[in-house]
Amino acid sequence: MTIRPLRILTSLALLVPACTGDDQPADSDAQVGADADDADDATPDEDVPEVDPGAQVGGLDDEFRDAAEEFGVPMPILQAVSYAETQWQMIAGEAEFDGQEPAYGLMALRGEHLGLGAGLIDASLDDVKNDRRTNIRAAAAVLRSYADDLEFDRDDLGAWAPAIASMSDIAVEDALVSYIHHDVYGAIQGGIAVLDLAGAPVAQLKPEAGVVPDFTAPSDPTLAPGPDYAGSIWRASPNYSSRPAGTAGKVKMVIIHTCEGNYSGCWGWLVNSQAGVSAHYVVKEDGSEISQLVRESNKAWHIGATYDCDLNAKKECGLEGYNCNNFTVGIEHAGFASQKTWNSNLINQSAKLTCDITKGHGVVRDKYHIVAHAQLQPYNRTDPGANWPWTTYLNKVNEYCGAQPPPSEPPPAPSGQIIVDSNASNNDPAKAKITVSANWTSTASTPGFYGSGYWFANTAPVSDGAEFSFYLPAAASKTIDAWWTAGTNRSSAAPFVMFDSAGVKIGTVNANQQTNGGKWVQLGTFNFKAGWNKVVLSRWAAEGFVVIADAIRVR
Questions:
Q1: Looking at the DSSP assignment, which residues form a beta bridge with residue 200?
Q2: Where in the sequence does UniProt note compositional bias of the Acidic residues kind (predicted)?
Q3: Beta bridge partners of 90
């Protein structure tokens, strides 16, 4: 696949039950972990033909353009809000959290905004919910109504941030800031392109790296890792309680949920004390980030059902009648039960997380212990939906927990080398660490990344670098290589600054990240001291571009 300076989506980057790239056919092992006489109880993986993105999003650019012209809302704003909400999929949202209204359509309109949009364009609620063009028009009308209450230059993309925030329904400040900077404006800065199966573009948001939202800057100085999973970010929720003592409080299952919404909105709702709900983890739409909200040793409030073993093939009947939260770990996934496709990296990273949970608690890795929310609460929940690729998912969980790493796992560094990846869970914490501020955005959008994704940030005259730290037991001369995804919106002089363990700068290399993507590029050889040395990718470069923090290699 050609690497471009924007997010490229094709069928290879998405999962449907019978179209998963290098996965086995959907009916090859529908009984993972099951007995033959339990065949009727298997979670179905229907034999669905490959989804052509051209059929799903064909004509979308014209619909965005028409709505933009009709309502005076810039086309990139409509495109970015829609992508942040639904990944450009038509959805019919469902209830996942009490107190949060279902979302509908390509723009994920919900609650008062659904009715407001319908009224502003004189359309029926059914049309706004179900017709793509009408849904986009309604959202554009709502955004214009908020813009009418504000005074700003409507040609300035960054100035639209407060209006977008008003339509987001996100109450928690940190989550709202993340949504604006990372989800919406991250899409504008990085760009998006959807290709059909023949490789032709069918929808595109061109990258504009220099656009900065006129909104509160992210405030978190660093993103601390979760207490149980190194690849997660700790965003503590107050909505939890203690597990009961004894068998009823021992973790026996992992429950797979969908948020019925966007990533930032999801974790923002679950850390809100007024919501009264939570989950242990939330996985971002493209798998590039995972938030941990509740310690696994505590009970998160993610399922509103008591256990009925008849719903689970008569497994674990000793837990009959107990609250399911007592003995489960809940994983929410940004997205919707009604969506047609799932990003393959979300599936990979969620499977890796589930493997880690099952190892830590001795959970059996089969379809009776890694279960759908709907399986245990079928009377009012359907998530994660009919198109969640269960066979693929369980296969990957078992692959991650096996002796051999799955294809998406980065290979181990050869003896004598250290690789510091952008995903902390891929690093040996005794000798490799990654540190970034909240101004950096995690993604897996542009192909060619090392491991499971990368961080990017706008260039600016600020001291806010991504720090790749590595430990040396003794002073040594080491060669440093770097890995990035290439694109024309990247800096042509991204500053990699080398520091020894005493904090002394020992070299700077300006790398052209517009070329040489998807491979190791040598930066130079430097004399490091014993202890924790580091390579810092600085943002201090010519403005209007982004810098990519993916991985470094020490050899």
A1: none
A2: 35-50
A3: none
Q: Is 137 helix (H, G, I), strand (E, B) or coil?
A: helix
**Residue 177: per-residue pLDDT:** 96
**What does the mean pLDDT of the chain come to?**
87
Q: Which residues pair with 323 in a beta bridge?
A: 306
- Give the type of residue at 364: V
Please answer whether residues 215 and 248 qualify as being in contact, where contact means their C-beta atoms are separated by less than 8 angstroms.
Answer: no
pLDDT band of residue 56 (cuts 50, 70, 90) is confident
320 in Cβ contact with 308 (< 8 Å) = yes
Strand boundaries in 281-382, DSSP class E: 281-283, 290-292, 298-300, 328-333, 342-343, 370-372
Q: Which has the closest alpha carbon to 553: 443, 366, 428, 413?
A: 413
Ranges 38-47, 260-269, 340-349, most confident: 260-269
Helices (H), 72-160: 75-86, 111-121, 125-130, 132-148
Start-to-end CA distance of the chain, whole Å, equals 29
pLDDT for the residue numbered 43: 41
Task: Tell me which residue of 226, 196, 258, 214 sits closest to 53, measured CA to CA.
Answer: 196
Instruction: List the Cα angle 488/231/501 in 5-degree steps.
Output: 80
Query: What are the tens digits of pLDDT across the range 457-512?
Result: 999 999 899 999 999 999 999 999 999 999 999 999 999 999 999 999 999 999 99
